[in-house]
Design a protein that fits this description.
839 residues, 32 helices
């Protein structure tokens, strides 16, 4: 049966405004998809980022109706919180008082409690694949939705993989053409779907993406006002791969190049609808189109009813947050002035903000009162890309939405006091040694991949695999290793140091001045200043980068910290800063360090470059770092099932073994539990325990007269923290669509693209269940971020009014914003007004 011509006109003769309408709807649907970064550049993302222009409840209704996706916590989860008294009656009452629509709807606490007994009855709109999948044999095969997702997913995996498969297909064309050619030679999908004519129909597919989009809409005759919604719902059926294509589109925009993969993916899904329509006889096809039209004419009313039904869930979401905020407000106002560090500060430690650094900062201050800790975000102010020596593996070390403007690579500086001096001979030795070792490793690996060599390779390797097997059976307790040094001989590793490249002296001075001002280190600099990045440690973990730094594009913070420390220790740079009125004391030195968030150890770098006085200061600091780490390990031990009273050395060994255990699915809890961001002087929070749930960024409005630092904090770190917060929120509330499932079933796709759960289905995005759930309960509470800022109201409001993104986040309920009021109480921002936060 040949595909009939469109009912109204042939495609080539379609009116320009009609085709333009389809084009606009397709673009609108594609813009609704948030990107998902690859495994080796893990960036936590709010999966609803493109929808923040709408209120949260409206987005929740759209996701339910269009994709059967849950945005708010389930009522079962809220019922558990109520039963555990995590939510109090006062929290419910306050939530209803804060939600004007709840008041208008006449909701009471009795209504909310009654609603917990049932799941919400949320309507959903069908797609063509659902309407057509109605034959009597549908229970004896894969549903067409499942089969189509699987086929598209396998095609995308083959098309985008450039690192994993040894034998690669030809990819000279776009994704739509690649899929079209693949389907013509696919003899298995038709059997799975009970479509014996699939091969014949696939040869009649439209030749271009645009024709595939237009042809289906021409046949369905849906109302134009629902086109974009239908297309968004269509993309949500393959949301994982849509998010990957959105990432490629995002990268293409940064590089000012084309990114058509997402549109191609949409065309593929629409082409599948056309295939299924063609597989039916004319009567069934017309009936399916009529059924779909009837359903989608009700879309506006269905969305309205769903939004109204979800008012109950929004109230419970807010009540859950109010319960936490009561505790947070008490901590932030209990001692407004807070204890301050002594005048004679000997050590300053600037930590990259992360909820895992909060307990360590607190512990350091308790064991070493002369230390001043600071929190600072933004990859230590270096928007850089790093290329390890003798490789082409250039990777970004900055927030994912930004393009690198600086370059870093490895240098060799062997003379103390001369961190900028290069030893070209040593660099050349490192290059040669690494290149030779990589070449030998490549030959060894290739020998194992030829089909005929598989069994003989194992026999030839023989005893060489026993050591690897022993590591799996008895995980070692060694410290974190740096993969950037792989292939470099051990004797040369200590002298290979990441450093900024290609900057002249004036550019270095300007960069140093900007970073020091943003960190609050343009005054009162201590003799020793630690720049503490962070990174996780785990083995056999496809999502290992998710334990590293989200602000560094899923990388550990070592590279940025070392690059900045070297820059700030260069004498010409210091002299230039002094000319600008920013004098670094001659004896002061900056030291790069890394906080291993899995074991809570702190490692210092480039210590051999320190002059004797600074090196001596570091050595005196080491015992305090160890004691602080031990305190944090004991605080974290119960959540990991370890004994808090275990001996110090044994507890550290246990955590190291967990980190090196290839079977360990929970080496640490990452950022689970994150709930707040405090932007204020440390005096507001010093000696207060936030239980590892709070990002702490130092800020003193007195030293920010032009409000530029405040603006950067509200438009960069606040957004990054929001992304992290909503990735955890979405992965907890809907682990099926926005979580990556069971970590033990993960199979890596394309070497770094993402994971399948098992061997197929959609690409899984978000966090694994083991990163959120301990096997008995959810470890993460899905709370929207509460941001508390110590700054004048007018200054905050100017930033809100200037930046639409910030205004949308606040006005549409994606996060909460507080500030300290003149009487030391807290005020909540509510559409331009400041309302007192109940104590």
């Amino acid at each position: 049966m040949a595909m009939p011509e469109p009912a109204h006109h042939a495609m080539d003769d379609a009116p320009a405004d009609w085709r333009a309408g389809v084009e606009t709807a397709c673009e609108q649907a594609c813009r609704a998809i948030a990107p998902a970064w690859p495994l080796d550049r893990a960036v936590a993302v709010n999966p609803h980022w493109a929808r923040i222009g709408m209120p949260v409840r409206r987005v929740a209704a759209r996701m339910a109706v269009l994709g059967r996706i849950r945005v708010f916590p389930s009522r079962a989860m809220q019922r558990q919180a109520w039963d555990r008294q995590r939510i109090a009656l006062a929290d419910l009452e306050q939530a209803l008082a804060m939600l004007a629509p709840a008041h208008s709807a006449g909701l009471t606490t009795a209504h909310l409690l009654s609603a917990l007994r049932d799941s919400p009855r949320l309507p959903s709109l069908p797609l063509l694949i659902d309407v057509l999948d109605d034959d009597p044999r549908r229970d004896a095969r894969l549903s067409w939705r499942q089969a189509i997702v699987h086929q598209i997913s396998q095609t995308c995996a083959a098309c985008f993989d450039t690192l994993q498969a040894e034998w690669q297909p030809a990819r000279g064309q776009g994704l739509y053409d690649f899929w079209r050619e693949t389907l013509r030679h696919d003899h298995g999908t038709g059997m799975l779907m009970d479509l014996p004519g699939l091969g014949r129909i696939s040869k009649q597919l439209p030749r271009t993406r645009q024709d595939a989009e237009c042809r289906l809409f021409e046949r369905l005759q849906l109302p134009p006002e629902v086109w974009a919604d239908y297309l968004e719902a269509t993309l949500l059926t393959v949301n994982g791969w849509a998010a990957w294509c959105a990432y490629l589109r995002c990268q293409a925009a940064l590089e000012d190049s084309g990114g058509e993969h997402l549109r191609d993916l949409l065309a593929i899904r629409l082409a599948w609808d056309a295939i299924l329509l063609e597989s039916k006889d004319d009567t069934d096809a017309r009936q399916a189109s009529a059924t779909l039209q009837d359903a989608w004419r009700q879309a506006p009313e269905m969305l309205r009813r769903c939004e109204q039904e979800l008012l109950v869930d929004e109230a419970w979401q807010l009540a859950l947050e109010i319960g936490y905020q009561r505790q947070l407000a008490a901590k932030l106002t209990l001692a407004p002035a807070g204890p301050k560090p002594p005048d004679g500060v000997q050590v300053q430690a600037a930590f990259c903000i992360d909820v895992r650094s909060e307990p360590l900062r607190r512990a350091l201050e308790s064991v070493l009162p002369s230390i001043q800790t600071l929190g600072f975000a933004g990859a230590f102010g270096l928007p850089a890309a790093y290329t390890p020596i003798a490789t082409t593996a250039r990777r970004p070390q900055l927030p994912g939405l930004l393009a690198p403007t600086l370059e870093m690579s490895d240098s060799v500086a062997t003379l103390p006091g001369r961190p900028g001096a290069q030893d070209e001979a040593a660099l050349d030795r490192i290059r040669r040694a690494r290149t030779e070792r990589f070449a030998l490793s490549g030959q060894w690996l290739a020998a194992s991949r030829w089909p005929g060599a598989a069994f003989s390779f194992v026999e030839a390797a023989g005893i060489g695999y026993l050591a690897k097997l022993a590591q799996w059976l008895h995980p070692p307790s060694h410290r974190r290793t740096n993969d950037d040094l792989a292939g470099i001989p051990a004797r040369l590793r200590p002298i290979a140091r990441p450093a900024l490249q290609g900057l002249d002296l004036d550019a270095k001075i300007a960069l140093a001045a900007r970073v020091l001002h943003a960190m609050g280190l343009d005054r009162n600099i201590a003799p020793l200043v630690l720049l503490v990045g962070h990174g996780g440690q785990s083995s056999n973990n496809a999502q290992a980068a998710a334990l590293d730094c989200g602000a560094c594009c899923g990388q550990a913070g070592e590279v940025n910290a070392r690059g900045l420390a070297q820059l700030l220790n260069e004498e010409p740079v210091r002299a230039g800063l002094a000319d600008r009125g920013l004098a670094i004391p001659p004896a002061s030195r900056f030291v790069a360090a890394l906080h291993n968030t899995t074991t809570d150890e702190i490692e210092g770098f480039d210590l051999d470059l320190l002059p004797p006085a600074a090196r001596s200061c570091w050595e005196r600091l080491v015992p305090a770092l160890r004691r602080a780490g031990d305190l944090v390990r004991r605080e974290r031990a119960p959540r990991l099932g370890l004994g808090a009273r275990t001996g110090s050395d044994e507890l550290l060994r246990q955590l190291r073994r967990r980190a090196n255990d290839g079977a360990q699915t929970r080496p640490e809890w990452g950022l689970a539990g994150n709930a707040a961001l405090v932007i204020a002087p440390r005096s507001r929070s010093r000696a207060v325990s936030f239980d590892g749930r709070c990002f702490l960024h130092d800020y003193d409005a007195r030293h920010d007269p032009d409000e530029s630092v405040l603006e950067s904090l509200m438009t960069a770190p606040m957004l990054v923290a929001h992304w992290i917060n909503w990735q955890y929120h979405a992965s907890t509330c809907d682990p099926e669509r926005f979580g990556s499932g069971n970590k033990t079933l993960h199979n890596v796709v394309g070497g770094r693209i993402g994971v399948f759960e098992g061997n197929g289905g959609d690409l899984r995005i978000g966090l694994a269940r083991q990163s959120l759930h301990d096997g008995q309960r959810w470890v993460h509470e899905p709370l929207r971020l509460t941001v508390a800022i110590d700054a004048p109201a007018a200054a905050i409001e100017r930033v809100v009014m200037k930046h639409e993104v910030v205004r949308q986040l606040l006005d549409n309920g994606w996060l909460h914003l507080w500030r300290w009021m003149g009487d030391e109480s807290l005020g909540r921002y509510a559409r331009g007004q400041w309302v007192a936060v109940p104590s």
